[in-house]
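Problem statement: downstream parser choked on a complex file, so we are re-checking the raw output for the nicotinamide-adenine-dinucleotide run. The parser issue turned out to be on our end (a line-ending mismatch), but while we're here, posting the original submission so the record is complete.
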Amino acid sequence: MAKNYVIARNLDLYYRKIMNICCIGAGYVGGPTMAMIASKCPDIQVAVVDINQERINAWNSANLPIYEPGLDEIVSEARGKNLFFSTEVDRYILESEIIFISVNTPTKEYGSGLGQAADLRYVESCARRIAEISKSPKIIVEKSTVPVRTAQMVKTILASTSHQFQHQIVSNPEFLAEGTAVKDLLSPDRVLIGGDLTPEGQIAVGKVSSIYENWIKKDRIITTNLWSSELSKLTANAFLAQRISSINAISALCEETEANVDEVAQAIGADSRIGPKFLKSSIGFGGSCFQKDILNLCYLCRYFRLPEVAEYWEQVIRMNEYQKERFVRRILDSMFNTVSGKRIAILGYAFKKDTNDARESPAIGICKRLLEEKAHLAIYDPKVSRQTILNSLGIKEDQANSIDFCKSATEACQDSHCIAILTEWDEFKNIDYEDIYKNMVKPAILFDGRNLLDIEMIRLIGFVAKGIGIS
Ligand code: NAD
Ligand code: UGA
């Protein structure tokens, strides 16, 4: 009888139009994802809440806290109509039927699991808050990337704190990439939704699915059980990163053998079983997620006593570290083994183009190493702020004597001994390198860490030029 009641009540909820949803966490995922939902679902009131007042202020201003092509437009269209940014976390938890949790899940920096496990304290605190204050049953959606079986922790917290309501947990990991977030959200390869296999769980899955069905065809919406959904997200990132490490491993061999890594990538990518994407050799992958998610996967494997599996995935990270160090080594080798007092122009600091995000950017490790070698850096990035760069390097404003922060690539390159392209911003393709060459110390050296330029043309100008995986 009780079960029938629950089903009837949830069916009622299912067929009623969803009116209020909220997302806890106004970051790189929460902000764009909710803006897209608001723009595609005028019937849904969407609130994005965060404890960071400064971030919320920025979302409510003309200068959004994150740079993403196309994002300004969709935010300004929906903001104030059915999209709201607020620090009133409790209010929107109370008002919402569906609550997305999109808080950060960084690598743990303390205690057990240090340096490997995901730090779930922010997810946990959201779950506790929802359990404590809710006055109606909620559908709680894990949007953050979490270790497999995290939903069990959330369920346990809800069951032990809130005795009144039967909340449902749904896993709906996000697959957007920064720099292409709007495009990815508009037309995703798939949306993944995992839930309990109970009738109530399936109703919750259906309800979350119905949001996306406003603009995404049903055949692109994959539904699974909770655990498959959680694990698929970590696995997808591990596979993507693995492809980059694989091609980067081959780039080292190319440099020794006169093979060209871009030609090898094209040749193997033409095989439909391999495919062309994620085969661009580089100074290594960066970003807030690949490394943390693989570390997390390795931690889980060890936890479940699968050390061979952990070692297999650890190699992807080792190769990435090797690639960054190899890049620095090649710069040193080309500059007579010393960069002390030499000006090196750093073009690009973001972990990839079209974002202002420098989290785990390969530029961080490379710049740190060059500073250790006593180089003078002239850094230019079109979107990453001076403060972000200083914070990422762990340098205080008054200690930044060895760094010039430049307003253009030309300014950075002026009087430099070497140019290092660390991010593939389109504008670096269109610089007048002949002019730049004239104003550099000779021999003028250029290291293209993204294989962005036609290296033969650059050599014709007179540069000693090197790319990745090109001898
Ligand atoms: P982020 O750091 O940009 O944003 C997280 C936000 O959550 C912060 O603004 C923080 O203040 C807020 N927050 C933390 N605890 C809170 C609480 N208790 N109440 C309210 N707000 C709180 O992180 P992000 O890049 O958006 O990533 C979020 C999650 O999504 C992570 O798990 C990440 O792995 C995953 N993810 C990220 C990307 C990406 O491209 N960045 C893509 C897919 C998945
Ligand atoms: C990645 C995944 O692509 C997303 O699907 C996922 O949702 C996200 O992580 C996440 O979970 O955070 P993102 O890190 O934003 O997205 O950007 P990517 O395009 O994947 O690039 C990651 C890094 O790999 C960048 O440093 C990029 O320059 C590098 N990369 C990428 C290469 O070196 N070569 C390539 O061929 C592709």
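For whoever reads this later: The chain has a mean pLDDT of 95.
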